[in-house]
Every structure is written in C-alpha cells, then in structure tokens.
Design brief:
Blueprint: H1 5-8, H2 19-29, E1 35-36, H3 48-59, H4 72-86, E2 95-98, H5 101-112, E3 118-123, H6 129-135, E4 139-144, H7 155-162, E5 168-172, H8 184-197, E6 200-204, E7 229-234, E8 247-250, H9 253-264, H10 272-283, H11 286-307, E9 314-315, E10 323-327, H12 335-346, E11 348-349, E12 351-352, E13 363-367, H13 372-390
Parallel strand pairs: 1-11, 3-4, 3-5, 5-6, 6-7
Antiparallel strand pairs: 2-8, 7-8, 9-10, 10-13, 12-13
Helix pairs in contact: 3-10, 4-10, 7-8, 11-13
C-alpha cells in the first residue's frame, strides 16, 4: 500500500537534521555520561505551584472534554496578556488554544496556504519549519540570513522571494537557533514587504519572555498588520511547561473562527486541567516568567566571559532565547563535523548549525540547559577542543 506523498515527504526525503542528537541519546542509553546541550528543555522543571493547580483541577473533575477553542478563562487570560504587551485591542475571540506552539504553527499554515502555495521562512530556522509547511501541502521557500548581519533578515531578500508569488512568511523572534532579537528596523522592513506583496505573516513568539538585549516587538502591533498576522505563542518556554502542550494562535476573528473548525476536526482541544494550570501560571504575572528566564540570562553572561578570553570560537550576539550560536569555522570543520568530534572526544552534545539550514554552516547551537557549573565546564572544554583543532 502507498502512503501519501504529503506524509512521506515531510522531511524532504532526507535527514531531519537531528542525527547528532539521536547519536547522543544512543550513547546515554548505553550508559555513557553525556552532557546534553541540544534541545530547549529547561533543566528546572515546571514549578510545583503550577503542578499543584493542575492537580487541584484534575482532582476537582476537569478531566472531560474541554471547549475546543479553549476554556473561556484561558482565552481571556491570553488575550489580556497579548493586549498588555502589544497595545493592540485583543479579546478571547482572537485566541485559539492549541496543544503547544507546534500545533499552532501547523494550524496557521493550514489557515494561510493552499496546496502548492509558496510559503516563506527564514534560514536559520527551527528544525520543524519546512516539514510543517510540507505537511500542509505547501512549498517551503527559504530566505537566507547572514552571520555578518547577526542573522537579521534583509527585507530586500524577502521581497525577492515574495515577488515570485507567496502566500505566507514565517518569522521567529527571539530566534531559535541564533538568539537574534529582530530590531524595529528589521520588523518594519518585514511588515512593508507583507503589505506590498499581500502576505500573511506568521510570527512565532514562544521566546518572548527571554530577551537579554533589545526589545521584543510583536509585528502584530505594527501599522496595518493586525489583520494579516497570526501570532503563535506557548507556555512551554515562558513557564517551563514543555510537556503540558499548551499554546495558542492569536489572529483576526474570522481566521480564528475557521481555525476552531480545524481544531474540531484534528486536536479536539486541550485537556481542561492543563488549561486551568495555564491560567494559574499566567495569573502569577511577570515575576514567575522572570524567575524561569533568569538561569538563561545568567548562563549567557557566563558564556560571554568565557568566550571573551579567546578568539577561536565566535559568539553571534545572544540577544534572546535559551541558546547560543557559536561560530567554529576557524577549526576548518563544518558544524556537523565539529559537533560529532566534540561528542566523540568529550561526550558533549551540541546541535550543528546545519541542522537549522545552510546559513549557519560552520556553527553549532548550544542550549544553556544544564546547571551553571556543568555549563561553564562544558563550554570551556568546547573552546579548548576548537583551539586544538584550529592549531
């Protein structure tokens, strides 16, 4: 029996870019002590007070089917949060609750792309982006950024692809994997291209609470953009609720109405007790978000101090998110070869820049997701390894 091309071509027929990660996990399964600096998983798990609220809700009986668009309380809480941060009028009718940000990304592309449409995204990119686009039957079209620009997208490069015909553009700021926070100038340029070429803008903002330099600006807040922007958010990074799988799409009311129909025929909503826990978490305000973000802010400073003492490994300005993008081209190796060498020699696992596209060739992404002492030791070892290879 034949499976559909849509499902068999999600990864484009090749590697999904996670080979080094899978290799590290096999080593761990075999009993080897590997320091994982790979995926964006908090080393400090979901706060016990959030788990307490989740437990109270479940034991209180909120374990049946929840409303498909999301509970009224959570939709209103998310709308209030977004309105406070963007000063754009937002109500529960602008919000669909989804099983995590990834489901929101998929739903947003279903809403904006017909089969065969060209859908633009920025390189470097989170590893699921092209597969998400292929999964809805659209054609993924990459727009490369450049290390010398600190991976800020150039409006003229986006326009060049948009001019060939495109339905949507997917952006991510603060950016995974680079840590780049898009500047006001960059976002104004992106918005101008979207208006000129009648593009839907899908804005992945799951790292909006992890900004170390600059300012997070939601493009939905820019002139004439609220009616052509779908914002994807999540509790995963801001509240360390990765396994809870609760996120959202914020967009025009008409788009959300159709997305509710999609959810009815796909996910059928999110567990009510998880949504109640999300409401509780949001009600704790910025203090809890800052508490969860603080370890990454601290480790970023540790990394800057270590890297300032040498000139072999370069640091792309780490303005936000829980990652560092390190330039290892001085070693003469690709990012993948360097990552494999580091793993084989020192049992430290990183993600090759090539896992996230071609723009970060010769780079590795480091997740700041182990305790400070092990993080500093691992980073120093990485630098020493790079210096040895560069000699």
């Amino acid at each position: 029996m034949q499976l559909s091309q849509r499902i068999t071509h999600i990864t484009g027929g090749g590697s999904d870019g996670w080979d080094v990660f899978y290799k590290a996990r096999r080593m761990i399964a075999d009993g080897e002590a590997v320091i994982e600096l790979t995926i964006g998983e908090h080393d400090i798990r979901t706060d016990p007070i959030i788990l307490g609220a989740m437990d109270d809700s479940a034991r209180g009986g909120h374990t049946g089917y929840a409303m498909v668009p999301g509970t009224q309380d959570l939709r209103e809480a998310v709308a209030e949060r977004i309105q406070e941060r963007t000063v754009v009028p937002t109500t529960y009718k602008n919000i669909l609750i989804t099983p995590g940000g990834q489901a929101g990304l998929f739903a947003s592309h279903v809403a904006t792309c017909n089969a065969g449409d060209r859908a633009l995204y920025i390189d470097p990119y989170y590893a699921t982006y092209p597969g998400t686009i292929r999964g809805v039957g659209a054609e993924p079209v990459v727009v490369r950024t450049h290390a010398e620009d600190a991976f800020q997208p150039r409006a003229e490069d986006i326009a060049a692809e948009a001019a060939k015909g495109a339905a949507s553009l997917l952006i991510n700021s603060p950016n995974n994997p680079t840590g780049t926070v898009y500047s006001a100038e960059t976002l104004e340029g992106i918005a101008a291209v979207c208006r000129e070429h009648d593009l839907w803008l899908i804005s992945d903002e799951v790292y909006d609470t992890q900004v170390w330099e600059g300012e997070h600006i939601s493009p939905r807040s820019l002139q004439d953009m609220s009616e052509r922007t779908l914002v994807v958010g999540s509790m995963s990074k801001s509240h360390a609720m990765t396994g809870s799988r609760v996120g959202w799409v914020c967009g025009p009311e008409a788009a959300i109405e159709h997305l509710v129909n999609l959810a009815t025929h796909t996910t059928y909503g999110v567990a009510g007790f998880i949504q109640d826990a999300a409401v509780f978490a949001l009600d704790q305000g910025p203090d809890l978000e800052e508490k969860i973000a603080e370890p990454f802010r601290r480790r970023r400073q540790i990394a800057r101090e270590i890297l300032a003492e040498q000139n072999t490994v370069g640091l792309i300005p780490a303005q936000g998110a829980m990652y560092l993008m390190l330039d290892v081209r001085a070693t003469g190796l690709s990012g993948e070869d360097f990552a494999n060498s580091l793993l084989d020699t020192h049992k430290i696992a990183t993600m090759p820049g090539e896992s996230f596209g071609t723009a970060a060739h010769g780079h590795v992404r480091v997740a700041m997701t182990v305790d400070d002492e092990r993080f500093a030791k691992a980073l120093k070892t990485l630098v020493d390894h790079a210096q040895t290879l560069a000699e």
